[in-house]
Design a protein that fits this description.
Structural class: alpha+beta
Low-confidence stretches: none
Helix content: 10-25%
Number of helices: 3
Mean pLDDT: 86
Number of strands: 3
Length: 84
């Protein structure tokens, strides 16, 4: 299976990149910086799909599987007008 998570390593991300981590079991959502995840040597050369399989939910008593997504820190703006 190939997808964006299979093609992208954690090392490819900037240290300040935000990763959204969502639990598939309880729905708990947290954010982590790529630099913090890279601080653990075991994560250094992982592709994002491998990292997703390794991570577990941090909510008390859950420890379920998680889904990761890259968070965009730019503000989005609504559609402002029509044709000029």
């Amino acid at each position: 299976m190939s997808g964006w998570k299979h093609n992208l390593q954690l090392l490819d991300l900037e240290a300040e990149a935000r990763i959204e981590i969502t639990c598939r079991t309880c729905g708990y959502v947290c954010h982590a910086r790529a630099g913090r995840l890279l601080a653990d040597e075991r994560n250094a050369f992982l592709y994002l799909d491998e990292l997703e399989a390794r991570l577990r939910c941090r909510a008390r008593g859950c420890h379920g599987h998680v889904r990761i997504a890259l968070s965009a820190e730019t503000e989005t703006e609504g559609f402002q007008g029509g044709l000029s």
